[in-house]
């Protein structure tokens, strides 16, 4: 973070990169430069075009226009191999590691000619050990990937890039899956790397990381660069304003009108959940903030009927239900927008119509034990029209749809049943800006219609923007309820990191 | 029983019966480690048995016959590989199809080449070769070191497969193709190339296993002579938990039961107990061993998962 960095040699230059997906312009004439030893944060909302840009740089996508220059040499477009050879290493959000192979094997994979005899393991091992010592990336080279934690796997990915002599490291949302401690270790590693003359680009939408660990911020919105500033010359508010833009900032959600408690949990233990106490009120969006993997999935499962409480009381509309199951949950008016729309939200090879009635085929659309396909078809057409699902028709297989359109169908499927309780688990993950606004609008509409909405998200901005009441989840513990605006982002961040839970439990009870 | 177990001829028979199984098991193991189930194994062994034998009958030297068998197997492997890797078709269906096609091709070619004969002509097969010095060791010598060259080759082949899989970049690439092909592709190696190559080499080894039957164990080609050995090898790969060393042990175990049941039939018990029960013995014991051994086996994660570039 020395002032001389901007005068250092330029290692990477993106010039007027443009990429369109159909009508959507993901990247619109983006230019940026990276200097030697610099940490550049690429900041923007989901769908702002950050990942697209990095995929173009790494050769996974072909840009429609523009050029990339690395270390003074133009980089051929669309070739990951060329990017690797030019010294660009990328750590993807989804790791590309083989679980049953060892760390060392994953690192050396593809670095030697397939036809060479023997693997030169001793040399490779020495190099990996030297790298992990120099960069503070502690990991056992002989461990199998399957036995490693997520943080350790990320270290292996970084080692992979360093092993290939990468001079530029690109990390796509590196902290999304890390605990705060692991994230701190990661940034320590990045400091060691820049001290050795490497340059780093990291993609993030977490402002505190960007402020704490970058030299330069480039902010993207709707595929355009809306600002490039030195981190020390800016602050969080300025960045946030750039990120969301004026027109988004105005579109704040009016508070809801709280109704009766629809679902309440009292000291419930289930799976990783520890003594969870929670009230979901009608006409309220309850936001659940937290780093992923802290029990959100279990809580969503519990309310959705997939998980049974081991201890504690669970009341739906004030009564304890004798048998809790997904079927009972649906019957009790629980609507579910699952976290993984591909795995649990839809059946990929079923048609839209079949997917639209997955929860209701045996009740609403059954006639004397047979499925009333004509009614299903009419219903699906209503959903397609009402929820703006862009698709070839009700008979198309749902795997052909984009994530956004798939999500709209799921949304329609849930909303049409007018759920009293709605669990939206990561409802906008991976969606583009337009679809995000649409889904958010629908959630607010459901709330205004009297539903109790539980919004689970890793994106603090999303939670803070939509929720009337916010809880934070950390290691299976739930914080007390905070009214909208009661806590700042920083204070919520502390709760997410696990601070404050000692006294929090008594407060909530 | 004890008498049988301490006779050199019993152990010699175990190694002999195990040899074709080892070749074919190694072949299947290579395919599966690369992520491709090859149910063509049974038919590929038939084609190997036929092609090797026919080549020698037409005048090639014995090792030439083995080479011809390997190439014939690799050819059917190429067919299987192209259909299931780049085209991503069902590995079960294609594999069974390859088995039927290869078997029928062998029988058809046999009839074309020898339309008139009722008893198949004989060739001069591999003769046993006694390893100097070692074969003089009492009991152990005649049991282990007086085999045909192809038997020694089978064990050498297993060692080679283990070495390549665990000690060379090529083997690493093969294993990665079966574990997480995306990881391999991200490092700039072609998954399609590695998988198809592995299936071809593996199929070649299966065919060599088949050719052992005509070039070493017997001296001519019969219909039905492979007799389900291919299916046994698929079970042996599972039994061996996809590891070459354990798979060889499995092959020896199966061969041991097989050699034992033949000998048990000639004992006084054999006069009372129906012989079919003895024939069942190796299979029953194999199933039991499989149940006991394969519970904790690490299946290659991407086995039977077609890989399409750019898909998540």
Automatic annotation (TrEMBL), chain A:
Q: Spell out the InterPro entries in the cross-references.
A: AAA+_ATPase, ABC_carbohydrate_import_ATPase, ABC_transporter-like_ATP-bd, ABC_transporter-like_CS, P-loop_NTPase
Provide the alphabetized UniProt keywords: ATP-binding, Nucleotide-binding
Top-level taxon of the source organism: Bacteria
Q: Name one GO molecular function term.
A: ATP binding
Q: Which residues form the ABC transporter domain?
A: 12-247, 246-500
Extract the SUPFAM superfamilies matched here: P-loop containing nucleoside triphosphate hydrolases (SSF52540)
Q: What is this protein called?
A: ABC transporter ATP-binding protein
Give the species this sequence originates from: Pseudotabrizicola sediminis
């Amino acid at each position: 973070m020395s002032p001389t960095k901007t005068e250092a040699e330029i290692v990477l230059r993106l010039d007027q990169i443009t990429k369109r997906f159909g009508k959507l312009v993901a990247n619109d004439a983006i230019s940026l430069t990276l200097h030697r030893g610099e940490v550049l944060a690429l900041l923007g909302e989901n769908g702002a075009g950050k990942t697209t840009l990095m995929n173009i740089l790494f050769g996974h996508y072909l840009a429609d226009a523009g050029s990339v220059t690395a270390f003074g040499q133009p980089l051929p477009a669309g070739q990951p191999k060329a990017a690797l050879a030019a010294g660009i290493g990328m750590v993807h959000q989804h790791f590309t590691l083989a679980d049953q192979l060892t760390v060392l094997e994953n690192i050396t994979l593809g670095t030697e000619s397939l036809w060479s005899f023997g693997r030169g393991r001793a040399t490779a091992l020495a190099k990996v050990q030297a790298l992990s010592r120099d960069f503070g990336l502690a990991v056992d080279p002989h461990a199998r990937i399957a036995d490693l934690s997520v943080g350790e796997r990320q270290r292996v990915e970084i080692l992979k890039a360093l092993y290939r002599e990468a001079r530029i490291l690109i990390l796509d949302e590196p902290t999304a899956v890390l605990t705060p401690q692991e994230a701190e270790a990661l940034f320590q590693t990045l400091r060691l790397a820049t001290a050795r003359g490497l340059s780093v680009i990291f993609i993030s939408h977490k402002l505190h990381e960007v402020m704490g660990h970058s030299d330069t911020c480039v902010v993207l919105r709707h595929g355009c660069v809306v600002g490039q500033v030195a981190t020390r010359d800016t602050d969080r508010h300025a960045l946030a304003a750039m990120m969301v833009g004026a027109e988004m900032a105005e579109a704040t959600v009016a508070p809801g009108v709280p109704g009766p408690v629809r679902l309440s949990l009292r000291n419930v233990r289930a799976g990783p959940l520890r003594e969870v106490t929670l009230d979901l009120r009608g006409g309220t969006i309850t936001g659940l903030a937290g780093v992923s993997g802290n029990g959100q999935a279990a809580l969503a499962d519990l309310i959705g009927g997939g998980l049974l409480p081991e201890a504690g009381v669970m009341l739906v509309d004030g009564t304890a239900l004798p048998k809790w199951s997904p079927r009972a949950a649906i019957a009790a008016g629980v609507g579910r927008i699952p976290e993984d729309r591909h795995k649990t939200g839809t059946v990929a090879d079923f048609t839209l119509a079949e997917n639209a009635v997955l929860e209701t085929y045996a009740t609403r659309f059954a006639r004397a034990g047979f499925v009333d396909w004509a009614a299903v078809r009419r219903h699906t057409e209503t959903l397609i029209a009402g929820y703006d699902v862009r698709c070839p028709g009700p008979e198309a297989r749902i795997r052909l749809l984009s994530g956004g359109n798939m999500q709209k169908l799921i949304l329609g499927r849930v909303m049409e049943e007018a759920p009293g309780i709605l669990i939206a688990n990561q409802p906008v993950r991976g969606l583009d800006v337009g679809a995000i606004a649409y889904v958010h609008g629908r959630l607010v509409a459901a709330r205004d219609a009297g539903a109790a909405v539980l919004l689970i998200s890793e994106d603090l901005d999303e939670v803070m923007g939509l929720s009337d009441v916010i809880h934070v989840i950390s290691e299976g513990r739930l914080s007390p309820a905070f009214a909208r605006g009661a806590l700042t982002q920083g204070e919520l961040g502390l709760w997410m990191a696990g601070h404050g839970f000692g006294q929090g439990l008594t407060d909530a009870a | 029983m004890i008498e049988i177990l301490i006779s050199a001829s019993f152990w010699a028979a175990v190694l002999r019966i195990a040899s074709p199984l080892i070749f074919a098991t190694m072949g299947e193991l290579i395919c599966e480690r690369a992520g491709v189930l090859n149910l063509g194994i049974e038919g590929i062994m038939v084609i190997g048995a036929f092609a090797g034998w026919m080549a020698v009958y037409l005048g090639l030297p014995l090792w030439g016959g083995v080479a011809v068998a390997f190439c014939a197997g690799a050819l059917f492997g190429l067919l299987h590989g192209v259909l299931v890797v780049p085209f991503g078709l069902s590995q079960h269906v294609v594999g069974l199809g390859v088995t039927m096609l290869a078997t029928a091709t062998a029988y058809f070619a046999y009839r074309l080449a020898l339309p008139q004969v009722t008893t198949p002509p004989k060739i001069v097969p591999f003769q046993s070769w006694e390893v100097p010095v070692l074969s003089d060791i009492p009991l152990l010598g005649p049991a282990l070191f007086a085999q045909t060259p192809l038997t020694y080759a089978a064990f050498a082949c297993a060692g080679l497969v283990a070495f390549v899989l665990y000690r060379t970049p090529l083997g690493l690439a093969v294993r990665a193709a079966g574990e997480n092909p995306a990881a391999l592709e991200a490092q700039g190696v072609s998954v399609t190339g590695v998988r198809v190559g592995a299936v071809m080499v593996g199929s070649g080894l299966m065919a060599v296993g088949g050719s052992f039957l005509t070039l070493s164990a017997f001296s001519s080609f019969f219909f039905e002579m492979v007799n389900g050995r291919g299916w046994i090898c698929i079970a042996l790969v599972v039994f061996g938990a996809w590891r070459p060393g354990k798979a060889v042990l499995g092959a020896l175990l199966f061969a041991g039961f097989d050699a034992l049941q033949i000998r048990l039939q000639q004992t006084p018990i054999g006069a009372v107990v129906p012989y079919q029960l003895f024939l069942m013995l190796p299979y029953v014991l194999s199933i039991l061993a499989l149940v006991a051994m394969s519970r904790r086996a690490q299946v290659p994660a991407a086995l039977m998962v077609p890989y399409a570039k750019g898909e998540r």
